[in-house]
Amino acid sequence: MRPIIAPSVLASDFANLQSEVEMLNKSQADWLHIDIMDGRFVPNISFGFPVMEAIKKHAQKPMDVHLMIVEPELYIERFRAAGADTISVHIEACNHLHRTIQQIKATGAKAGVAVNPHTSVSLLEDVIEDLDLVCLMSVNPGFGGQKFIHNTYRKIEALKNLIISRNSNALIEVDGGVNEQNAPLLLEKGADVLVAGNFVFSAADPIQTIANLKNSTK
Ligand SMILES: O=C(CO)[C@H](O)[C@H](O)COP(=O)(O)O
């Protein structure tokens, strides 16, 4: 099966956000990946509800929202109201992960959990059946344009085994440093969703670059 491609709007030209979103509408992108950073969970601040709502006004594809914030449970309903179709919270930011996953599902959004490079996927063992998505961070979160962390391949395999053993429907998303070179091996290991920021938006032809990622084969 072809991968789901989710370009990260974080790497787009914010001064021309409408045309960037229209470009994604025309492209083979499946989802728009929306990175929310609070300056506390990660050492960077991206954007919040008004920008997300502006994106939603023009987007013709689902919004995949990655919350890099502390206490995400305080804002789940607002992100859903702002247009999130999938909401991922960080396992490292949740004291009551099971409750937060149920809270996301109660809004009607798909529920995801994001996992930092240092966090073992084995910690998802008791919630994997409840998840629609696991976002494996292949860079330390907070910034686009970083180098892909190689250990991610091993984590995809471990996560895939966990998903199969628990009969879970969770998709495996890889986020950070994804490009045309590493995409085939990511897919071979079991990735379903590829997030790409700089690789797409710095390309001379982003539409063609998205098509190339979409056509990556195992
Ligand atoms: O979550 C993120 C950063 O925390 C970004 O989505 C991720 O880094 C993608 O950007 P790039 O493809 O440029 O690495």
UniProtKB/TrEMBL annotation:
Sites where the protein binds a divalent metal cation: H33, D35, H66, D175
Active site residues according to the UniProt entry: D35 (proton acceptor), D175 (proton donor)
Enzyme Commission no: 5.1.3.1
Residues where substrate binds: S8, H66, G142, F143, G144, G145, D175, G176, G177
Gene Ontology molecular function: D-ribulose-phosphate 3-epimerase activity; metal ion binding
Pathway(s): Carbohydrate degradation
GO process annotations (BP): pentose catabolic process; pentose-phosphate shunt
Cofactors named for this entry: Zn(2+); Mn(2+); a divalent metal cation; Co(2+)
Reactions listed under catalytic activity: D-ribulose 5-phosphate = D-xylulose 5-phosphate
Keyword Isomerase on entry: yes
Function: Catalyzes the reversible epimerization of D-ribulose 5-phosphate to D-xylulose 5-phosphate.
Xref: NCBIfam families: PRK05581.1-4, rpe
Protein name: Ribulose-phosphate 3-epimerase
Organism classification: Bacteria, Pseudomonadati, Bacteroidota, Cytophagia, Cytophagales
